[in-house]
Design a protein that fits this description.
The structure is a homodimer.
Chain A: E1 18-21, H1 32-40, E2 47-51, H2 60-70, E3 75-78, H3 90-97, E4 101-104, H4 109-116, H5 120-129, E5 134-138, H6 140-143, E6 148-153, E7 164-168, E8 176-180, H7 182-185, H8 188-197, E9 202-206, E10 210-214, E11 219-224, E12 228-232, E13 238-239, E14 252-260, E15 265-267, E16 272-274, H9 276-284
Parallel strand pairs in A: 1-5, 2-3, 2-4, 4-5, 8-9
Antiparallel strand pairs in A: 1-10, 6-7, 9-12, 10-11, 11-15, 12-14, 13-14, 15-16
């Protein structure tokens, strides 16, 4: 388990889903996101491992175990990762090897990156996600999923050079930068600033109680009560980020955005929305 | 003065500038926006009328008179408009007829629309702006400038059907919808929702201490310490606003945004940014 492992699928193995959740997902009355995750992982056959590492609350792991069992998951455990040594512990790595789904809770994403980053367990999560294991993360757990993680920043819709701090994440995708609590904490500016640094990425701004279920084929589908703001800087004509001082507004021209609600889909490869009503309208046109 | 007047420039008369300000513009140390307004209105030859109608504070009018005089304006008065009768008062209309510039303060934009809307004084402001008189408004005074005014709404970057309430404004332009305190009060969602109703408009999200100086030729130039977010829905492919329930997220695909900082310009007719560094780069390409 400690050997180097490829992070790309090889042979017939399919990737698992990648599921960023914007935080504060509904857990009791109508937990559509968590239910969909359990079903995707196999329902009664699901074997889910929860990492409550980001959280400082004692009961976060146990709480998610209860929720996932209530939603029909066959087997659920949480693993406390409090030190980097915990991420080399063979029992932990063995337990993880049985998983059909991995769930990373919210809290402080820097706890996740400093404890898991560069450890055998971090490598194993990448390997498993490349081999059919679904990985969901909520709030800080969503931020950590891509190669480049938003570690912190300022709120507000206008990007400023100092509005965002990036650091390495779990690298389950290198196409996305993810921000969470998007509507609730007013984070368009910091997401735009992150994209200004390198317009290669697609930005996902995920509202609370909202998730993007990203299929092995790279199609994202929105679930939950909020929206996902897709920020596509691929036609960006000009950005002043290289010249801007820390608190300057960053000029950015020609950024494309899409606001997607539950059921809407987006193809991350073609960078095109696949909105059901829009597709039907085009069909009938 | 009470006869019907055309609101379009006729013959050789040029339009005046239209100047939405995002609120909280710097008044003491480095009042670049207010200074530029005074200079535009003629400096020592300037004749400025201030309408503190939106404000509930007793001293708002007198305060702006002091500021504009300190910044070199030749003649400045404020006119209290507290009733619709005040907007038919001949002395008020006569005083306004001498103005080279009109300044509308912040406060509650519904006070402005309910007191000035549909009165001879409202008509006169439109006539004067069509005939070389510059009109600036800050905060509520900026919101009231276009034909369709954002009367209220919810904060957050994700548009919802109920996120915005529109009502008629002063109609100095029918091309724009203006939102103010943009960065500070997180208003992208309500601006997007306003545009979803009718993607004909260009949305301006104006940060505090930031202004758009819109020339008679329809070119906006940014001044001040913040940014202006231009939201251009002209390539909008799909919006769900017609079907959305009040609190649903509104799906909107393919919205173009530009973030502009001081000195950046935007041509409202061609809908193209005219960013100095970008133009120079294209020149040298």
């Amino acid at each position: 388990m400690l050997e180097m492992r490829p992070t790309r699928s090889t042979g017939s193995a399919k990737r698992g889903y990648l599921i960023p959740i914007g935080g504060a997902e509904e857990k009791e009355t109508n937990p559509v996101i968590l239910q969909h995750f359990v079903d995707l992982c196999g329902g009664a056959e699901a074997n889910i491992v929860v990492f409550p590492t980001a959280s400082r609350l004692e009961d976060t792991g146990a709480r998610y175990v209860d929720i996932f069992k209530r939603l029909g998951a066959g087997k659920v455990d949480f693993i406390d990762l409090n030190t980097r040594a915990d991420c080399e512990n063979l029992d932990n790595l063995k337990r993880l090897d049985e998983a059909t789904g991995i769930f990373i809770t919210g809290g402080n994403q820097l706890r996740l990156s400093t404890i898991i980053g560069g450890t055998p367990l971090g490598d194993q999560i990448r390997y498993l996600n490349a081999h059919e294991v679904h990985v969901a993360g909520t709030s800080a757990g969503a931020a950590i999923l891509p190669e480049h993680m938003i570690a912190g920043g300022q709120s507000g819709p206008t990007p400023r050079q100092a509005a965002v701090t990036l650091s390495p994440g779990l690298a389950l995708t290198n196409r996305l930068v993810i921000d969470q609590h998007f509507r609730e904490r007013d984070r368009l500016g910091r997401l735009l600033a992150a994209l200004a640094y390198n317009p290669y990425f697609i930005g996902l701004g995920v509202d609370e109680d909202t998730a993007g279920f990203i299929s092995p084929e790279g199609v994202l589908e929105v679930a939950g009560s909020g929206g996902i703001t897709i920020v596509d800087p691929s036609d960006l004509e000009y950005s002043s980020i290289a010249e801007a001082r820390r608190d300057d507004v960053v000029t950015m021209t020609n950024v494309r955005i899409h606001i997607l609600a539950a059921g809407d889909r987006f193809d991350l490869t073609s960078r095109r929305p696949l909105v059901q009503a829009q597709l039907e309208a085009e069909e009938n046109a």
